[in-house]
Amino acid sequence: MTVSFKGKNASRRQFLVGAAAAGAGTVAAGAAAAAGDPLITEKQIWAQATGDGVDAVPYGMPIKYESDVVRRNVEWLTADTISSINFTPIHALDGTITPQGCAFERHHSGAIELTKDDYRLMINGLVDTPLVFTYDDLMRFPRESHVYFCECAANTGMEWAGSQLNGAQFTHGMIHNMEYIGVPLRTILNEAGIKPEATWVFVEGADASSNGRSIPMEKALDDVLVAFKANGEALRKEHGYPVRLVVPGWEGNMWVKWLRRIELTTQPVESREETSKYTDTMEDGSSRKHTWVMDAKSVVTSPSPQAPITHGKGPLVITGLAWSGRGAITQVDVTIDGGKNWQVARLAAAGQKMALTRFYLEIDWQGEEMYLQSRAHDETGYVQPTKTQLRDVRGLNSIYHNNCIQTWWVKSTGEAENVEIS
Amino acid sequence: MSKFLNTVIAAMLLATPVAAEKLGLGRAALPEEISAWDLDISPDGTGLPVGSGSVLDGEEIFSANCAMCHGEFAEGVDNWPKLAGGMDTLDHDDPLKTVGSYWPHLSTAFDYIRRSMPFGNAQSLTDDEVFAIVAYILYSNDLVDEDFELSNENFLEVEMPNADGFFVDNRDETEYGAFNDTCMTDCKDTVEITMRAAVLDVTPEEVGADQAPAQETAAASEAPAPVEQAGPAAASFDAAMAEDGEKVFKKCKACHQLGDGAVNKTGPVLNGIVGSAIGANADFKYSKTLSSMNADGMVWDDATLAEFLAAPKKFAKGTKMSFAGLKQDDDIKNVIEYLKSHQ
Q1: Cα–Cα distance between B246 and B222 in angstroms, integer?
Q2: Which among A297, A268, A292, A295 is positioned nearest to A280, based on CA atoms?
């Protein structure tokens, strides 16, 4: 059988770095030949000539050498890019904050261009006074800022029936994590006056899809934000500029972009996106609805199929991300032998509620094959399940909310592949 | 009150910004504004407009507005959603979820079609047209007869096959207590690979840093520059009209691509269409009508395009372009100017 490997090839990298090519004329930084590393012993152009002046790029983009760290689409998933999704390059990022420019996009009728001047937000339904706000009005309410992850309910959804996509970007990249600045939804609802019989809040976007979702009042009054800034700057067009909803810990589809209307009701609208989509079909054909919360989950981002080990034996940094829609991550375990034995990973910082947590495990790798997995614990005592545990409850057809433990098979070459194990 | 006290009170307010105090921001929403935006419809019929539409009318309206993506019989084209079929497949491998087999409420179909469809021309249908389309989708799912007429009067009487197929999230009972495996050592004896992604081979190819797509492409195609030597059509090019036409073209974008890297989709690429022979894209399979126009040597110029865009099926009976046509003359002229900017 011929197996076509589509992950990044480690041996080419090793050749370039020189670790596996001592006689090829290149000199590795850590293993200088007798003559010394020419990058050090010879004068280099960047150390002699001048570089760009200020304002060469008024708004900076990543340097060209990082141009492979971009969102990617999986074409066969959808009929058209206008109603589609792409994936955050989590395999190449570190820390927890996702830069806006490479944070995944999900549109139902394309990313529209709506100015702040043309922006209106309406509150209607079961309120004392239906109101209309301009963007400037929103800027006069007291603000809050919080870091939250936004995960599409379909993240890892292609993996239910078996391992399919060879890369953390594609298996787990429908997620981003930003510092949002906005007005609590409860403040805005209070401004209109909530009638006692109101129990649901229907939120709707201004784009042609007019994506609408029903949120129970309890959540709406808890931590939902009407956000206009992310990571310090305006939201990007593709993330709902100028205003989007932030629904911490709950599936991304509810984070309505280009938010234009909030209606208080006594019942869920049962819109298309909360009945025909974003519902989870069980093995017997019945379906769960209102599955809003994103359960605890984690993934090793490196090494992984797009981020193979290229440095040979010795010190290896294993790293990844963990998160839970039900609170803070309290612990992440990592196994290199497919779950026979686990080690507690080091959290870069204590877990925050409904935000990404970065973990590290430093090991001495001696070129052995590894079945690499991570397992998240959250503050409720919940522990991330295996795919088998999930399948035992739900079968293979639930599409959404797949938070199973992911396995990367790391080979002795340093290459990694998405596999399922017993 | 002293300045000092004012400052203290201000500080207290700052510390508790979410007090129930109203700030007096915004203005009252007018009834006509609310009715313009508040279009959602609930399962009990709240929000449903007065009106009616028949299966037979729906067939025609569906063909003109929906079939290009969803198929003449709601069976779906390519990867676009299938709206009919799939009855009793929900407990099979790969269940087919359609309006008939899966959707629990008819209100959802009406609500979605009225608010969000047709793709690329949302909220362009009348309420009666929506009633007719919903009636036709029911018919396509064998849920009503061909002489059926759906109206606000009988709307709630329609029974959806999967109405009882849903239950509220019960993960707290079925999963949360059970998912607590904290074993750290000697948790299993053997580990074997049971499935590999590389065997399936469906991952997109990695694009290296040196081959990454140029980032200017998108920006460049947003502001297309008219090409001078584009033949007779270019002589009368009006940039301002073309700019307005770009907005109109949004209605066409679901099926037609323009600019660098454009490829044939449901409809052919339209680069250089003004001044070209009708039905001349060798890689696109045209209707017999457009092919015969090609054989007759007909050309897309201002006049033929205007006639076609006003009423596609009238100009070319049998054309595969399932678009009802542009109603405004200005829209037609402007979109033709926009097409000229991609010669």
Answers
A1: 9
A2: A292
Residues of chain A with C-beta less than 8 angstroms from the C-beta of B202: 74, 76, 164-165
**Beta carbons of A82 and B186 less than 8 Å apart:** no
A340 and B186: CB-CB below 8 Å?
A: yes
Token reading at B32: 């006509």
Rounded to the nearest 10 degrees, what angle do helices B106-116 and B127-140 cross at?
Answer: 130
What does the alpha-carbon distance between residue B85 and residue B98 come to, in Å, rounded to a whole number?
6
Give the tokens for residue A224. Answer: 């939902």
Instruction: Determine the residue among B35, B37, B101, B170 to mutate to test chain A binding: the one whose Cβ has the most chain A Cβ atoms within 10 Å.
Output: B37
DSSP-derived letter for residue B36 is H
Closest C-alpha to B202, from A80, A27, A170, A294: A170
Question: In the predicted model, what is the mean pLDDT of chain A?
Answer: 93
Q: Which residue has the higher pLDDT, B74 or A1?
A: B74
Partners of residue A130 in chain B, C-beta under 8 Å: 28-29, 34
Contact assignment for B115 to A212 by CB distance below 8 Å? yes
pLDDT score for A33: 66
Count of C-beta atoms within a 10 Å radius of residue B172? 10
B181 contacts on A by Cβ (under 8 Å): 383, 385-386, 389
Amino acid at B247: K
3-state helix, strand, coil in chain B (%, to 5): 40, 5, 55
Can you give the pTM of this predicted structure? 0.82
Q: Are strands B166-168 and A287-289 parallel, antiparallel or unpaired?
A: parallel
A105 vs B130: CA distance, rounded Å: 30
Residue A377 near residue A332, CB atoms below 8 Å:
yes
**Helical spans, DSSP H, in A334-412:** 387-394
Chunked into runs of 10 residues, chain B (343 residues) has average pLDDT values of 47 48 96 98 97 97 94 91 96 95 98 96 96 98 97 97 98 97 96 90 66 36 36 60 85 82 84 89 83 87 89 81 80 89 84
Complex confidence, ipTM: 0.90
Residue A102: count of CB within 10 angstroms of its CB: 23
Question: Which residues in chain A are closer than 8 Å to B204, comparing Cβ atoms?
Answer: 72-75, 170
CA distance B184 to A228: 44
Give the residue from B48, B97, B121, B195 with the most A CB atoms within 10 Å of its CB, the best one to mutate.
B195
Q: Is A102 strand, coil or helix?
A: helix
CA distance B273 to B280: 9
Lowest mean pLDDT across A12-16, A93-97, A147-151: A12-16
Among B217, B215, B254, B257, which residue's Cα sits nearest to residue B342? B257
Residue A300 one-letter amino acid:
V
C-alpha B63: how far from chain center: 16
Q: Please indicate whether, in this complex, the C-beta atoms of B197 and A396 are within 8 angstroms of each other.
A: no
Residues of A in contact with B156 (CB under 8 A): none
